[in-house]
Design a protein that fits this description.
The protein has about 425 residues and is α/β, with parallel strands linked by helices. It is built from 13 helices and 15 strands. Bound molecules: pyridoxal-5'-phosphate (PLP).
Length: about 425
């Protein structure tokens, strides 16, 4: 075992889980090189962060130039990067998103979004979705239900948070089969309003437009539009948590755009600044202006170096035509995954949008097969491909490569994946 891993295990709390035993030395584009010089295709993108790839030259340049001029403000000074970034975000986010609050991480922005919702509406109730992941701080983890493991030993959590089922059709939470469904999962919301909390007391719903950590699930379009209608009917704020789906990952800037949804509030983080810490809450001007001076704040949020880098991330995605690339290469990938599913009964379902692709591994009886996925992932790493898992049972492989991944690279990666599945099945 390498010295770095030995020291990490003695110095860092075991609460922090590393997905691989690779010790990275350098990285470039979609590739990471370890300390022995081995090269890996990084289909994790550092957990959906490196949408423009590792160490993009324009990003390295932007970081250097900004760092030489002005690194930190602490809200003492105004500086151009923060307003230029807000202008850029206004251009690419849905029409309803007009003003921003910058912070450092996804969880912190989720906290900001629910605080804003409560503050602006004077209502307390928050509705989140079963299987959702919104972060680890106490407020965010109160919304997170992708696994009870993340909540264990932290109760009592934030009160007046209620969960309704996410439309995970492959494993329908209401026990329905496709073709035999009248969206009972959505009906559960009305049940909640009748029995648990009246809609007039609910400040917001917060939803991932494609479920991330919970299993890479794309909801039916009809579900999303009917949910939006319900929020409008009761004047409940619609918060889109686009932390994982954002910045082109699904082939449009934001996943809610696939469903024609214009949220009241949007939460952005992960890929926003090409690997530097930055996040944002965006919202309607009229809502944001109800947030009185001092009612929310930050020391580091919107850091000049992160903000300048985020502007460059947007420029690169536009300049290099990465959204089109994700759409075409993503379509090819999904088609090829469907072929794999037809040939390998251990693949129960494949799904996704753009470069957010999920492959669900199952046993003969359809139950989750995490040990098989574990073998497949190990085989992929041995062959130079990094993929990670998701889902409460850890049986879903997620492919989330950088948006610049070419057709040829996608073909290589899927061939490695298939080889690894074959070998893992032979191993019994
Ligand atoms: C949808 C979603 N929201 C929020 C978060 C929390 O982000 P962070 O880990 O930066 O706090 C994540 C992280 O995976 C996420 O996927």
């Amino acid at each position: 075992m390498s010295d770095v891993i030995k020291k990490a295990r003695s110095l860092l709390t075991p609460a922090l889980v590393f997905h691989t035993d690779i010790v990275a030395e350098r990285a470039e584009g979609i590739y990471v090189y370890d300390t022995d010089g081995r090269r890996y295709m990084d289909f994790s993108s550092g957990l959906a962060v490196l949408n423009t790839g590792h160490c993009h030259p324009s990003i390295v340049k932007a970081i250097g130039e900004q760092a030489q001029r002005f690194i930190h403000s602490g809200c003492i000074f105004y500086y151009p990067a923060i307003v230029e970034l807000a202008e850029k975000l206004r251009e690419i986010t849905p029409r309803t998103i007009e003003m921003f609050f910058f912070s450092n991480s996804g969880a912190e922005a989720v906290e900001g979004a629910i605080k804003l919702a409560r503050y602006a509406t004077h209502r307390q109730g928050i509705i989140a979705f079963g299987g959702g992941f919104h972060g680890r701080t106490l407020g965010a983890v109160s919304l997170t239900t992708s696994s009870a493991r993340y909540r264990r030993n932290y109760h009592p959590l934030v009160p007046s948070v209620f969960h309704v089922p996410y439309p995970y059709c492959y494993r329908c939470p209401m026990g329905r089969k496709s073709g035999d469904c009248s969206m009972e999962c959505l009906g559960y919301l009305e049940w909640l309003f009748t029995h648990i909390i009246t809609p007039e007391e609910v400040a917001c719903v917060i939803i991932e437009p494609v479920l991330g950590e919970g299993g890479y699930v794309v909801p039916p379009g009809e579900y999303m539009s009917r949910l939006r209608d319900i929020t409008e009917k009761y004047e409940i704020l619609f918060i889109a948590d686009e932390v994982q789906t954002g910045f082109g990952r699904t082939g449009s800037w934001f996943a809610c755009q696939h469903f024609g949804i214009e949220p009241d509030i949007i939460v952005l983080a992960k890929a926003i600044a090409g690997g530097l810490p930055l996040s944002a809450v965006g919202g309607r001007k009229e809502l944001m202006e109800r947030w009185r001076p001092g009612s929310h704040g930050t020391t580091f949020g919107g850091n000049p170096v992160s903000a300048r880098t985020a502007i460059e991330v947007i420029n690169i995605i536009e300049r290099e035509g990465l959204l089109e690339n994700v759409r075409t290469v993503g379509e090819y990938a999904l088609e090829r995954l469907r072929e794999l599913k037809n040939r390998y009964p251990c693949i129960g379902d494949v799904r996704g949008l753009g470069f957010m692709l999920g492959i669900e591994f199952v046993k003969r009886d359809g139950s989750p097969d995490a040990p098989l996925l574990e073998k497949v992932m190990t085989g992929c790493i041995e062959r130079g491909l990094i993929i990670v898992e998701c889902g409460v049972y850890k049986n879903i492989a997620r492919l989330m490569p950088p948006l610049s991944t070419t057709l040829d690279e996608m073909q290589q990666a899927l061939s490695i994946l298939e080889d690894s599945i074959k070998v893992s099945l032979q191993g019994g």
